[in-house]
Amino acid sequence: MLRRALISGLSTAIALACPAGAMAEQAFPDRPIKLTVGFAAGSSTDVVSRIVAKRAGEILKQPVVVDNRPGASSSAAARAVAASPPDGYTLFVVTVANAINANSRGTVGVDLPKSFVPITLLGRVPNVLVVHPSLNAKSLQDFISLAKSKPGQLSYASSGIGTSPHLAALQFDKVAGVEMLHIPYKGSSEAMTDLLAGRVNVMFAPASTVMRYVSDGKLTALATAGAHRSPAAPKLATLAELGLRNFESSVWFGVVAPAGTPAAVQTKLAAAFHEALKSEDVKAQLGTQGFEVEGMAPQAFARYMLEETDKWGRVMKDAGITLN
Predict the structure, then answer these.
(1) What is the SS3 assignment for 60?
(2) Cβ partners under 8 Å of residue 40, min gap 6
(3) Between 136 and 72, where is the model more confident?
(4) Please, are residues 176 and 150 in contact by the beta-carbon 8 Å criterion?
(5) What number does CATH give the domain 31-125+251-319?
(6) CATH number at 126-224
(7) For the segment 103-160, what is each residue's pLDDT rounded down to a tens digit?
(8) Region 168-177 average pLDDT
(9) What secondary structure does DSSP assign to 56-72, as a single string?
(10) Predicted model pTM
(11) Smallest Cα–Cα separation from 80: which of 54, 116, 56?
(12) Run of H or E including 187
């Protein structure tokens, strides 16, 4: 009897000494976690998120459920998650689009450092410079020489003003010393349709999207804009290898939580996503998407987001682009 009383008293004392928040952190997660994706089901962001979420949920022993909230280049979803309770149960898949939009003066952008805490960079898909075969440019140097001989005449497609393909092309113009004509579309599928038809000459697009057209001879790949050669196209040289230094453009995906999320919860989530990315099955599935797994630590990811925001902000400023 005395022993039971002592144990009961000790348990009560511990419970009183531990704040409710601390006990909740220790029990985390005790219910499903929502992973918000700002793009439609079936999009590359959605596919990658679902692959990783499934394994992360198994590790955390609670489902990680993907919630698609498309619109406004994922800014609407970003704002919704930023306003959610900072308890680790609502996460957001942040992408390069959010880093670009963070430079907006209007309602499109969300201040990433103020709104979120980093969990991890999942990985990247490099943009690839592709041209229509009718252009008869077999190499990067061929293309640059042709573009210089026809300033403002060669056209490039993008999925819209201020998107990753658009800013990559603007950066290319500056680094290569050329001037191309921008043809913006309402989305990547429309842009790709016209490129395949030869109605526009060139485009920067993710390796996961374009390499199948290159394999079929429908497009010619000149270089990858990644920091290194892509596993999806190991024989394709980087722009840096071909002489265009200080040029890197990739579509990237990461996970963040609302600002104020407890450090213990942040650490537990980061560990789970890192472990998920190490899974051979996950790596194999992501590899079919042309995805290069990263698994970056939270603080390194925070620095990376700032670097990307600043880099694309400078490109936009130099080109006089303002997003509203």
Answers:
(1) helix
(2) 46, 68, 70
(3) 136
(4) no
(5) 3.40.190.150
(6) 3.40.190.10
(7) 986 656 789 999 999 999 999 999 999 999 999 899 999 999 999 999 999 999 999 9
(8) 96
(9) HHHHHTS-EEEEE---G
(10) 0.88
(11) 116
(12) none
